[in-house]
Amino acid sequence: MSSSDFPEAEAGDGWGVSLRRLERRVVLVTGGGSGAGAAIARRCASLGASVVIADIDYALAGEVAGNLRAAGTAALAHRCDVAAEDQVIALMDRTAREFSGLDLVFNVAGPWLSGDPLGYWSRIVGTNLLGTMHVTRHAIELLKRRGGAIVNVAADSGLGFGAEDRPAYCAAKAGVMRLTAALRSLQEQKIRVNCIAPDVISSPDDFAVAAVNLALREDCAGRVALYRTGKAVQLVDYGDPGYHQAQTVPW
Known about the structure:
Number of strands: 9
Structural class: alpha/beta
Radius of gyration: 17 Å
Order of helices and strands: EEHEHEHEHEHEHEE
Largest sheet: 9 strands, mixed
Shape: globular
Strand order of the largest sheet: 1-9-8-7-6-5-2-3-4
Strand content: 15-25%
Number of domains: 1
């Protein structure tokens, strides 16, 4: 496994993607009621996007959406347990009805629980891995209309970094990365699916910058970006050594 740094960005912006506005773009953030998800929602709103905040805790999602609307952003909150496919379908239906399209998706929802009983495996894998799959699968139908991007949030533990005392979480996040790589072919339909794998997110706002920049990179598809606190974001050559041969780009 090797990696390459994202190019240096302009001071204060981060990780090599020039600032682009997102007017007339619609963004969906799962797990958007708090933490990194809320920060991504705020970041996209600051660039002009309309934002759908989905969270299993409707009160948290509603607070984020309310603050964005107060600042002049078109935003709505929707309660959704991404592990339940019927709820994901309802989320996509509402997004299409309210905003007539979708451009960017951030799959942030995914808890981790201490310990390793079977019930935890069901919840952790169901939300982190199957939830990411449900949202991705049903978002594709909307994204096909005009192209767009999906960013899945995994964790560096899925690559073997950090503490290994949460096997269910590590396995689920490894699955998210492999799912991302397997969806590389969607770039033929102008849909880019990438993954960002953080360690500990000490600054949600900084992480949001990296996640949004990854979504906007038109030269990345099926890639895993390693985000480690205090270090440059790196693209990881995940899988076969020749897997990304056709995507060789200068870093």
